[in-house]
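Possible regression after last week's pipeline update?

I re-ran a chain I had predicted before the update to compare outputs. Posting the input and the new output here so someone can diff against the archived version. Not blocking, just want to make sure nothing changed silently.
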Amino acid sequence: MKSNNIRTVTAAVVFVILCVGLVTGISMGTLSGFGWDTISMLCPLGAITTMIATKTLLPRALVSLAIMAVLVFLFGRTFCGWVCPIPLFQRIGAFFQPSKKRHELNKKKNEEVIAIAKNEMKCTHDCSSCSSCASKRAALDSRHYVLGGALLSTAIFGFPVFCLICPIGLTFASVLVLWRLFAMGDMTWSVVLIPAILIVELVFLKKWCTRFCPLSALMNLIGRFSKTTTPVIDDSLCLETAKDSACSRCAAVCEADINLRHPDFGERGLADCTRCRACVDACPAHAISMPLIARKKDSKGQTYAEIENPVDKTVK
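New output (post-update):
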């Protein structure tokens, strides 16, 4: 079973278990606040906004932040790729797209990344320090502006404003209000409003995870220091370095918009890697691996690609 299928099953199982607990009254919480009895964790963004709103350092919130920081430092944005229901819904939606449209979108993306690969292979200068190449690289990260807005709005209004539109929270809220509608006949405006906001975000903000999500922005700040289980390329096997053949299949399949082979041309850098293993599965030369600790060279002296955050390069 490919990693993509395993991820889908994992996210679906977690979602179903939490939904069952939610509608049956079992005290498990949701992904916005998960736990059992007195042992619980808050969403890291929710923890920060709660402390800002109450102007108090809450032990539970501080512990949640510390645990999140350790997990992101070790595993990056694994939560986004393996547990979060939003990418799950996006994959399900893509599956039900007309096969012709899905094929055209995949073909267009493949052509774009191959064109990038061919251009960089022909390039004779250092693109990272070239002003003309800078326009091809990612713009400033919009997610961090959304994160700043979420924190500022909390301070101004005195409650976590972003929680009202957080798609993860809206997902479980939709399940709860719909359950109450069919099980108890509880018809309120929430039955229409909550699912409607969620649908708008899923349909019109398809790049939510890479351009808008403040939680992923928060993880990105810590993920920059994570060096464990990140994908690396064996240059002796990669088609582009070993056989001078444009490929970039790894970039075409990456849901986080990372260009592993040509990081300057990716929208995001390795700080946003979700450890989904899609690039590992897609590589035709089996040149990509995810070692516990990424090294520049393996035991045989073969070099690996050194991937840096493209945002950091543009700042320099």
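Follow-up from reviewer: compared with the archived run. Residues 3-90+142-220 form one domain. Marking as no regression found.
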